[in-house]
Write a structure and sequence with these properties.
Rossmann fold; binds glycine; alpha+beta; 30% helix; 27% strand; binds adenosine monophosphate
Length: 423
């Protein structure tokens, strides 16, 4: 079959790598892709948000399935665009409907969903400019630190965690005043939860589900989890504290009620669910939902799936996921992200990358790269994800770090402590 994958990051390179291992694949197209993806798949130079252009390519290239990497096309309704168009409605789109994508597109929607279905999460209230005085009052009732979340998509920057009450009030006012544009017209204020986080990935056809390997990502730029938030600096799978006892609780209290909740609410959802979890005193609580795979978690999760991903995705499309088998690789997988100097602040692009040919025993997924006249150059803040297998976390990490050293570009930076907080 022919598959079209939308997106351009390390997540999409890892998905493409896994999809191409399937005996069922004829041609894999990726739009818009990057330099690394271009080495293994056919690149289409169209925006994932230009649905009309996507439709034209789907027809022209005889695409049998569309897999959506990032959240934006989902939140903008690509699933519904297909379903509502007679020419392409028979072509499955892997991802939720626009309503389902609100689990990521609106934090208030996600919170109300969790409340409705008794899914454990932090206590919260939502506010707009109309009831800002009540919001101040709610902040006074909470203990520091204060968690303020822009309701809508804010490129991963919409969550503020503030220690001082007066500062929290000032930031709340700024958020409601347009700090994140329309995304912060509504602000969710939450109780602060203290614990260690992990990412649980679920694949669902809307009826049944498979829990994919659990991973932990490292969001801060600095070692020891310090400094600014990034898109993710590395990841590890499996996660030592997410043992069988913990995962049983996750399945019973979170995964099952999420999937049945979607059914009860008549929300069409055939795709990946990313549940951001925090362990509080041994108990899992939901920090957030995303409606896609995580990045860089995908760069470890795909390594640990032994089964044919395309076969699983067909199960999603035909609502027969319960008949499919998910086999997991017991080895560890790690990824270390090489980023541009200055990221997540200002950074330069176009730095020539060398040393990719000398990498051995790791898989390098491209995140932000571009090819120009046979040279590969940096084209984003996160540049390359160096992923490795190992019989232990340390063995996998040592391979990722050794290969991270072999790759060179001006300003290269990576965290040397990925996995530091796990056994
Ligand atoms: P989110 O975009 O909702 O995932 O939030 C970004 C990050 O903020 C999370 O990964 C957590 O590290 C942190 N965070 C979000 N909500 C809370 C909370 N209620 N308590 C503590 N930390 C939180
Ligand atoms: N790694 C977190 C995310 O993809 O949002």
């Amino acid at each position: 079959m022919n598959i079209l994958l939308l997106g351009s990051g390390g997540r999409e390179h890892a998905l493409a790598w896994k999809i191409l291992q399937s005996p069922k694949i004829n041609t894999l197209y990726v739009a818009p892709g990057n330099a690394g993806i271009g080495q293994i798949a056919e690149i289409l130079d169209i925006s994932p948000l230009d649905f009309t252009a996507v439709k034209a390519q789907v027809i022209d290239k005889k695409i049998d399935m569309v897999v959506i990497g990032p959240e934006d096309p989902l939140v903008k309704g690509i699933y519904d665009f297909f379903i509502n168009d007679k020419e392409i409605q028979h072509i499955p789109v892997i991802g939720p409907s626009q309503l389902g994508a609100e689990l990521e597109g609106s934090k208030d929607f996600a919170k109300r969903f969790m409340m409705r279905h008794n899914i454990p999460t932090a206590k919260y209230k939502s506010f707009t400019n109309k009831n800002i005085d009540e919001a101040y009052q709610f902040l006074e009732e909470l203990k520091a630190p204060y968690v303020l979340k822009a309701d809508g998509l804010a490129a991963g920057k919409g969550v503020l965690i503030i220690n001082d009450l007066n500062e929290a009030k000032a930031e709340l006012k700024a958020m409601l005043g347009g700090m994140f544009g329309a995304a912060s017209n509504t602000v969710v204020i939450e109780e602060f939860l203290s614990g260690i986080e992990c990412s649980v990935f679920v694949l669902t056809d809307g009826k049944s589900y498979k829990i994919l390997p659990v991973a932990k990502d490292y969001k801060r730029i600095g070692e020891g989890d310090t400094g600014l938030n990034t898109g993710g600096m590395g990841a590890v799978s499996p996660v030592s504290f997410a043992d069988d006892t913990f995962m049983k609780k996750v399945e019973e209290r979170i995964v099952q009620p999420t999937v049945t909740g979607l059914q009860k609410d008549n929300i069409v959802y055939k795709g990946f669910i990313f549940i951001g979890l925090i362990e509080v005193g041994g108990e899992p609580m939901v920090i957030e939902y995303n409606v896609r795979m995580g990045d860089p978690e995908t760069e470890v999760v795909m390594l640990r799936i032994k089964s044919d991903l395309v076969d699983l995705l067909e199960g999603v499309a035909t609502e027969s996921l319960d008949k499919k088998n998910l086999e997991i690789d017991n080895r560890y997988a790690t990824t270390v992200m090489l980023v541009s100097g200055g990221y997540p602040g200002d950074y330069e692009k176009g730095k020539v990358i060398s040393g990719l040919d000398s990498v051995s025993d790791s898989i390098v997924f491209h995140a932000g790269t571009i090819e120009d006249k046979n040279t590969i150059a940096t084209n984003g803040g996160r540049v390359l994800a160096v992923s490795s297998y190992g019989n232990s976390k340390e063995e996998a990490l040592n391979k990722s770090f050794a290969n991270a050293e072999k790759i060179c570009f001006d300003g290269k930076y990576y965290r040397k402590d990925i996995g530091f907080d796990l056994k």
